[in-house]
Amino acid sequence: MTPFLQATDLRKRYGHATALNGVNLAIERGELFGLVGPNGAGKTTLLSILGGLIHADSGEVVIDGQPFHRSDRNARRRIGLGTQDLAVYPELTSRENLLFFGRLYELDTLTLKGRIDDLLTAVGLSDRADDRVGGYSGGMKRRLNLAVAVVHEPDLLFLDEPTTGVDPQSRHLIFELVRKLRADGTTIIYTSHYMEEVQALCPRIAIIDAGVVKACDTREKLLKLLPATLTLEGVPAAEPFRSVPGVTTASVESDLVVLTADAIAPLLPRVAEVCRANQFTPTGMTVSEPTLERVFLHLTGHGMRDS
Amino acid sequence: MTPLLTIAGKDLRLLLRDPRSAVILLVMPVVLILVLGLSLGEGFGRKPDDRIRISIVNTDAGLPPDAGAFPTKPWSAIVLDDLADTADIRIELIGSKAQAEALVRSGARSAVIVFEPEFSSRVHRCSFVEEPFKKDPINPLYRDGMDTRKLGVTILRDPTQQVSSAVIEQVVQVTLMRVVIPWMIGQAFEMIGTDEFMARMDKYIPGLALMPEAFRKTLGTGIQKGIGGFFRNYQFTAKTWAGLTNSTPSMKRDANLTAYESDGRGVIKRGAIRYQILVPSYTVTFAFFLVLTVGWLFVAERRHGTIVRLRAAPLRRWQILLGKMLPCLAISLFQGVFLLVAGKLVFGMAWGPMPWLLIPVILCTSLAAVGLSMLVAAVAKSETQVAVYGTLLVLVLAGVSGSLMPRDLMPEEMRSLSQITPHAWALDAYSQLLANPDPQVTIVLRACAALLGFAVVFLLIAWWRLRLD
Fold first, then answer.
1. I need a surface site. Which of A237, B280, B304, B378 has the fewest CB within 10 A?
2. Cβ contact, residue pair B312, A103, below 8 Å
């Protein structure tokens, strides 16, 4: 099946700095695709190229089987851009903002007004719809920023760090709207440096670092790149655990016994049995499942906030 | 609604909600005009004039029906001609005696000369001789010169300006003498040798009455010619000063005769002539303060990040730029109309004999201002840059163009140089329409064409320079 959005060998430099160094992506129609990477990894540049804001130095973008160029206004009608920085008029009300941006896409007023009411409800701004945005909290502005990006019902939505600096309530409303959009068939590319957020939302994820896609796969497969670990305190030796079925490795690190396995839960009764048999009395036990952040660390050799 | 109009409508709304724009574009010029209007004197905008101003109210009813062949016009007109012909004098005609009294009372005039309705008939009765040679004669001469009360001349004086009023009175005394004395001498000399004269001479020359009638006439004519012969430098029958003294009449000095221009009414001097200069000057100056409003509009679009959304939307570059330009033009047009209407309603300014021509001048000035504003928006990247570049540019252009001072007072070279600014062309057009009683339409149209030229050049450069990313 032809991907809805395909990026092939995208490259972009700003002076001597390389922002993208041969990025390839293929995203299916209706997919909620996560793009994770630290600040400066090239996420915003990639979205800017895919959204038609800037030119790539080389490479190609194909949307719905058609090569995409910045000058293609019909293709741009199908794209929604949830910008990293807020992009709304503080002197206008949220209703006026939505009306303005909807009209830029030449939607008829009646349809637009209905759509605006629905969106204001979805992002929890109905009560403040006619207040100027300048008086809103940061979370409310973020929610409006998302609503503005989708007011014209785009087929393809780019969300660049949509939850930066928001409160839990706003984060929840944003997630709800994103899930609803996906359910309605919108293809969404969701970027964030909050790994847990992407891990929770996106079934398929690409990890980007220094302008290169380090990995791109389903969430489960990415997480399987790293084993789960069970750490035991107060246990003198690792040797008895090496023969336990399911244990991949067993070693002693800083007076702790560290066991690795694909899954920890089935391992626990067997580990307890080995302790009893060897008269080991563990004083503590820590289970660590693989996370996207650990996968990122594993793939790039540095943490998210080291860049 | 097309995207272009959508952008225009949104920007118009933003401008209307920005109190800075209203203050800079509408309130500040009105306040400045008001402050300057109150603080500047009535001589503002006029070249310095060191000549003595003689203020006159002329209510003269004219010559009596039986005046005869001389003079051919009322005596007041002859007096005014004499004053106008006098060097270093300028005459100001005031419409009514009540207005003159108010001016003297307020100290605005030290003295005003009033020709009363009977002035011509009284001067016409002035004579050295008495009846029967002159019916009901008046002798206006007395120790200090001419008795103005006998001539039907009233002098309104401000008691606090005695020196100044005395100078004016002396000027008028001299003029009255130059007019009335030759008239009296001429009449008297014409009488010599007439039958009545010879009949009166009978009692002084014994036997004269016995002379034949023809001899008496010859003798009378001879006496007149004889006396004239003794004074060859004078023409006693001329009845005018130039004729009497055999001198060449001076050239008529029309420029010396002007109508009184009111210094306005009420506290703010509504209708004062200086508003004809102040209002257009500050209308033009503040039209170009639009650079701040437009600059801030563009900077705000970048600062709020909304320019990204505009670029992402299915819009062409020209739609975005034109959409932003149209409301600025609308604001500028409103500002121009607002200030001229305020000029009329608040300051009592006159719109001149061709007010409809103000419309193209406002339009062309606004287009030039919008062009310059787009240029500044293309260069400035932050609010501070807009404020610094914009204010500096506007003030320098206003200074060079003469918007901050009357252009008439600028040196010739500076006036020529000022034509490099759109302000100067706009001011020339306004000057024609608001200050010239007979506006030269060609000058107005040429100024409009120049302003359009500025607008096109500014917009082309702005179009080339403006970056939306």
1. A237
2. no
User: Closest Cα of chain A to B309: distance in Å?
Assistant: 7
- Closest Cα to residue A302, out of A170, A210, A164, A231? A210
- Chain B residue with Cα closest to A49: B312
> Structure tokens of B143?
């120790």
Give me the long-range contacts of B32-38 (CB less than 8 A, separation at least 24).
B32/B282, B33/B275, B33/B278, B33/B279, B33/B282, B33/B343, B33/B347, B34/B268, B34/B346, B34/B347, B36/B274, B36/B278, B37/B268, B37/B269, B37/B272, B37/B274, B37/B275, B37/B278, B37/B347, B38/B267, B38/B268, B38/B269
Exposure string over B329-338, b if 16+ CB within 10 A, otherwise e: bbbbbebbee
pLDDT band at A231 (very low <50, low <70, confident <90, very high): very high
B89: β partners: B52
- pTM score, whole prediction: 0.70
CA-based nearest residue in chain B for residue A154: B313
Q: What is the token pair recorded at B68?
A: 């005869």
Q: Cβ A73–B316 below 8 Å, yes or no?
A: yes
DSSP string computed for B65-112: TT--SS-SS-HHHHHHHHHHTSTTEEEEE-S-HHHHHHHHHTTS-SEE
Q: How far apart are CA B367 and CA B337, in angstroms?
A: 14
* Residues of chain A with a CB closer than 8 angstroms to some CB in chain B: 51-54, 73-74, 76-77, 79, 81, 83, 85-92, 96, 100-101, 103-106, 148
- Interface probe for A, chosen from B4, B5, B10, B302 (most Cβ of A below 10 Å), is B10
Q: Do B10 and A100 touch (CB under 8 A)?
A: yes
Tokens of B39: 């603080």
CB within 8 Å: A91 and B17: yes
Hey, is B304 helix, strand or coil?
A: coil
Q: Are the beta carbons of B469 and A53 separated by less than 8 Å?
A: yes
- The answer to whether A104 contacts B310, with C-beta atoms less than 8 Å apart, is yes
B23: DSSP letter = I
The proportion of chain B whose per-residue pLDDT surpasses 70, expressed as a percent, equals 92
User: Given the structure tokens 């062409």, which residue do they identify?
Assistant: B316
Chain-centroid distance, C-alpha B174: 28
- Centroid of chain to Cα B247: 34
Q: Are B243 and B235 in contact (CB under 8 A)?
A: yes
Judged by CB atoms closer than 8 Å, whether chains meet at B314 and A148 is answered as: no
Cβ atoms of B179 and B126 within 8 Å: the answer is no
Give buried/exposed letters for B44-78 (b at 16+ CB in 10 A, else e): bbeeeeeeeebbbbbebeebeeeeeeebeebbbbb
Please write the tens of the pLDDT for every residue from B379-436.
888 889 999 999 999 999 988 888 877 777 777 788 888 889 999 999 999 988 988 8
Contacts of A107 in chain B (CB under 8 A): none
Using alpha carbons, select from A175, A179, A184 the residue that is nearest to residue A155.
A184
Q: Do B314 and A77 touch (CB under 8 A)?
A: yes
Alpha-carbon A290 to chain mean position: 17
Which residues in chain B are closer than 8 Å to A104, comparing Cβ atoms? 3, 6-7, 309-310, 313-315
